[in-house]
Amino acid sequence: MRKWLVRVVAASHVAAACPLPTVAAEYLLGPQDKVRLKIYEWRASRDVIFEWTALNDDFVVGADGTLFLPFAGQIRAQGTAPGDLARAISDRLTQHMGLGRQPDVAVEIVQYRPFYIVGHVAQPGEFPYRPGLTVLQAVGIAGGLRTREEDVLRLEREVIAGQGDVGLLALTNVSLLARKARLESELAGSNDISFPAELKNRASNGTVGLTMEQERKIFAVRKDALTTQLRALHELREFLENELVSLEKQLTFHDKRVELVQKELAGVSTLVEKGLAVAPREFSLAGMVAQMQSDRLAAETSLLRVRQEISKTDIEILDLSNRHTSEVAETLRETQLQLNEVGSKVDTAVQLLHETEVTAPALLALRERSERAKPIFKIVRTSDSGTEELTVEETTPVEPGDTVKIEIPLPQSGLAALPAGGSSQAEPIPVLDAN
Q1: pTM score of the predicted model
Q2: How far apart are CA 195 and CA 353, in angstroms?
Q3: Angle at 384 between CA 382 and CA 386, to 5 degrees
Q4: Alpha carbon 44 to chain centroid, angstroms
Q5: Tell me, what's the pLDDT at 368?
Q6: Residue whose C-alpha is closest to residue 168's, from 399, 380, 433, 376
Q7: Strand arrangement of the beta sheet that strand 376-383 belongs to
């Protein structure tokens, strides 16, 4: 008896030293949970197990927390355990179908509703839940805490991209300034381009010098083309003027011939009346007068045509000059608009680059100090009584539908190290900083 008591006492001490594992809380269903039903019925009269194939399927708990099942209708699922839901379905089928014996119902969770994680993690978002999930595991699923190296690489890329944008805008600015100078010289009718001082001072730069030389070539080609077209029109007008003079002389000659023949015709007509000359001679002279008058009319028509061609040539000369002036003025206006736009973009790009190069390192230093601080884990959980935010530990279990928040507190002592937004002015960049 005494030995038995000793064994009982020893066993009780062992039990106290090694407590039994705690039983995990039973999972309660909620919206977005997908369950699979398995319903069978034993029919003793036929000695068979009957399968309810119409209900043996997957179902999703609706947003209102219910399941709508054939033959059973709408059943409350939110807040119930799978076993309780199975008994409720069995009772409902027995009532609705008038069964003498309750069917056996099994509810299996096929897919848990998701959980969410936000805050200072690499990949915040929605993730599928898994049983026994803890806060630390949830952080691991989201890629862990954000690291400073990722921010450094991102900022380096932003600096490189910003420098490229500023350099490209500077090149565009040079090209537009050179084009504007060329257009202004064309509009003024100058023999050469008068470039602004900001380009002349950088003519030794390869890109600037090449741009200026290209505009000079364009200026020369366009000037030669306009001069050639105007010269051709002026030469045509001169030719028409000479032809006009020639036609005017022809008209004078025709008038003299007609006058002489008419005098001869008048004399012959007098002799014919006196019987001193034959009538055919009179008829011949009358025909000659008619022919010469016809020739004069043709010459007069040619004279009018030449004068019309001269007027058309004058219009073409004027139109060519006006078209050229209008084209140059319109291109100059568009170039000025582009220059204004590029200037605005340059200011913005320089400011962004300045913020990245100056402000970002201070922010990174502050973030580096903050990353040594202990993260704060919180869970936002929705229940029938409302939504509550809980401060938790790494080992706290996560429930489906929870939103896990990860916060890294910023050290107050480091906030003063950051430059005030917009207080520092960026240094103006030259017209061209990149070759």
Answers
A1: 0.45
A2: 30
A3: 50
A4: 71
A5: 61
A6: 433
A7: 125-127, 115-119, 403-407, 376-383, 386-392
